[in-house]
Fold each of these.
Amino acid sequence: MMSRDYPFETGVYRPPSEGGSASLLVRFTRNCPWNHCTFCTMYKGKKFNLRSLEEIKSDINAMANLMSDLQAESKALGHGGLVTREAILALLEKAPGLNYHPGADMLIQWMAAGGKTAFLQDGNSMIMPPQDFIEALTYLKQTFPSIERITTYARARTLAQRSLGDLKAIRAAGLDRLHLGLETGDDALLKQIKKGVTADGLIEGGRKAMEAGFQVSEYWMPGLGGKAMTDQHAENTARVLSEINPHYIRSRPFRPARGTSMYDQFKQGQIIMLDPREQLLELRRMIQNLNVTSKVCFDHMGNYWRTASGDLVFHHGYEGYQFPDEKQKVLDRIELGLAFKQEVVRFRHM
Ligand code: SF4
């Protein structure tokens, strides 16, 4: 085997539910084409780029080369192509540059986990011209036939702008799940955070994704409106999510992150954060108004509230609580949280 350097890019971000399942991270675009949301740090200061089909295919080829070289080392050692420590060390000896490769560890973990899922990076892959997207997806699936599920981030606004026919064609080409940052369903708050979309746009984009056959995961941010907007944030978020009725609804409680304009507003006293009890009251109002058949998930450490017995109010499983069957259970858990004096959790950046 010739020594190779396996040139492919790996971005920083993927949803936690994609790390747990050891997804292959494939970078279809760089950074976020919108990049104005006032709470978001993810791609700040980084310029958005579309990547050409040639670049994406070249990355996929480099990943495939790394995979086949590792399998060859494994076979030579009599390990049948399996990912073993010895096979990895043998490959590292021939390709020492892999020690510093930002994506090699990710690819090897993905192989070791069975090579079943892939996540397309970065912030809004749907911005790609649909035909290019379809061709890149098809190439990815052909190159790695073990992949059973492909997911990505998308913006509701872009989904609303795409034709249903294009979305269906992308779905048919193998994209299974979309992760959408809804944040809030309240128009005034959407404007304040510069989300670049209205509640109607969120509904249109979310529904279109559902109609095209995607599995849809919507993320909202409890506490995003602070004390001033808590009621309207809870009620309108429940209304919008009820209209979309996605497969998954995921809670990502708001915390002002250093370096964002919301952090400055918070420091200047323009946003008054909810205390833990008020957060639970907002959650109760949102959940009470939520009429969905979705799975509602609290799969993030920001959902930190505890009951008097010391356990978490909500479990952090990726599959969450099935609504409407478990809606009452979630409401009962909130009551347990409200009955207990919550500690204020201080985060480093606050
Ligand atoms: S669209 Fe998403 S990634 Fe882009 S700035 Fe807003 S929250 Fe951040």
Amino acid sequence: MTRADTLAEQRAYLEGGLAELRCGRCGARVRAKKSSPQQTSVQWTTAATRECDELAALAADGRPTALVPSCPSLRDSIERAVHEGRLEVA
Ligand SMILES: [Zn+2]
């Protein structure tokens, strides 16, 4: 992949409505995108999965965290970001 491709991809990322957010409770940092008021996509990094107590608890239980879209507190943080205009519904 060329450098130009990488830059174009980064721009697409930002323009695609992905915003970096922190979970208000556990501080895990994720990227979130809202494609409609009902639909939110969250990208968890491995570090964030470890930081979030709620996800860590699920993982300890043997539940696959990839199937958990967010912890409940993060959902609130996303709603607040939308409300404050930090995350656009795109
Ligand atoms: Zn959390």
